[in-house]
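User: Can you predict the 3D structure for this chain?
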Amino acid sequence: MTVHELISPTTPPLNPSDSVEYALDLLMENHVRHLPVVSDGRVLLGVVSEEQLLDAAIADIQILDLLGAEPVKIEANTHVFNATKVLIDHDLTTLPIVNDNGDYLGLVRKHDLFDRFARMLATQESGAIVSIEANERDVVLSQIIHLIEQNDGRVLSVSTEKRDEVEGTIGITIKVNVKDGTRIRHLLEHHGYKVESAFGEDDDPDEMLDRVQEFLRYLEA
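Assistant: Here is the predicted structure, written as structure tokens:
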């Protein structure tokens, strides 16, 4: 999936002639800390932050004076994984999107990217969650999925994250279409997998959110 599908239809860019006060109001209205600055000709001039605008309000500086030489941007055909890494690397809450000619097309918001990941991880679907710890060199995800689906389960999503505690170790989080994760846990343990946790959809409603956050932290690496 590319970011073109996630361009925000409601969050406008700033114009270089806008006042600092207006820019701060627009940030607050859209619940973001960064907005692109775009010329009347749809040229991306830069990105300004809430912190810069607050400092400018004190020093009576114009928005145009806050812009650097090269704004952070991505093209419309960028995959959401790569877009998220750019967003995290630069600690942004919005990310400008341009076409092949560099013309501004719109922006993608951090919230919308993370919401998309939540959907990709099937957080809204009914099912149990199983967490496995494994050696990165030994694990084959297709074998785990095949094992589950050969035993009347269906895998809804899979995510992995590197573990800092032991080099070469990864955590694997699997969501399956059964309400109780106990049987899946016993099945995997019987085949030699180290299952850290397994629970049904009613056991801990916050756990999947924690897993989404772990996956997003993995993207920072």
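The mean pLDDT is 83. The first strand starts at residue 34 and ends at 38.
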